[in-house]
Amino acid sequence: MEQITLSYPATRTLYGRALAGVVGSGDMEALFVADQGERLEVSITTSIVNFEARWRALFDRLSTLTELPAGQLTIHDFGATPGVARIRIEQVFEEAANA
């Protein structure tokens, strides 16, 4: 297992918490807890070694396409494709926005 930590400037504020995906499903789960800070702190546990560049590229792209919320995002990845990873991340932010 590999641990990856990323940090991005937050451009919006949410107030909820949310969970998207299921670890046992064979891809990934994302847990988000909003806070009033100025950064999105991302903690990733992945079963795939040497995937930090992939995760960094995904969040770099997300940060240019959408407003990232302030808070803590915890990801448990078990081999999700980049498309599934992006869907889970967008789902968890949407759910937190509606909490």
Automatic annotation (TrEMBL):
Compartment annotation: Cytoplasm
InterPro entries to which the protein is assigned, alphabetical: Mal_deCO2ase/Cit_lyase_ACP (IPR023439), Malonate_deCO2ase_dsu (IPR009662)
Gene Ontology CC entries for this record: cytoplasm
Protein name: Malonate decarboxylase acyl carrier protein
The entry's keywords: Cytoplasm, Phosphoprotein
Claim: Acetylation is one of the keywords in the record: no
Keyword Phosphoprotein listed: yes
Pfam family, one: ACP
Family listed: Belongs to the MdcC family.
Coiled-coil boundaries: none
Main localization of the protein described in the UniProt heading: cytoplasm
Residues spanning the signal sequence: none
Task of the protein: Subunit of malonate decarboxylase, it is an acyl carrier protein to which acetyl and malonyl thioester residues are bound via a 2'-(5''-phosphoribosyl)-3'-dephospho-CoA prosthetic group and turn over during the catalytic mechanism.
An example molecular function term from Gene Ontology annotations: acyl carrier activity
PTM annotation: Covalently binds the prosthetic group of malonate decarboxylase.
Modified positions (O-(phosphoribosyl dephospho-coenzyme A)serine) in chain numbering: S25
